[in-house]
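USER: For my understanding, would you kindly supply a protein sequence with its structure tokens?

ASSISTANT:
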Amino acid sequence: MAREIERKFLVVSDGWRAGARPVGRLRQGYLTEGSPSLRVRVKDEDRAQLTIKLGQGLTRDEYEYEIPISDGEELLAACEGRLVDKTRHLHDAGEDRAWEIDVYHGPLDGLVTAELELSGEDEPVPDADWLGTELTGDPRWSNAELATKGAPVRLPPKGKDQP
């Protein structure tokens, strides 16, 4: 088991794009609702994982397993109505850390979030002018909830300051 300590924020401008690099398209579906979360993820059409997450908030237990891509595609097909499609980018956060910035597609088009894995709950988060409201611990902003219920607020249309 791995313990995941992570903070999540809305991204409010495209300032993150300088220095960021795309790492892949992620399609993920949720086989269960609530906790524990059971997710299947297909990355770039060639890798698949099954993930179980327990708990909510800053620190959660996470179990992650590689599965055959054919199994991943079949499981993803079973998740109709409980899907998230996004492109992930990495942006340097200093001290051998990286922001994972997710640009959502489909029904969540216009949503961009940033997550940072930490080594401890009291570890400081580097400031960035493109970070907005912290979403950590708000279950409405979990990917599982976004997949089943959509964004809890109306997303702004893409414009000059929207990624």
About this structure: The two ends are 35 Å apart (CA to CA). Helices lie at 69-77, 143-149.
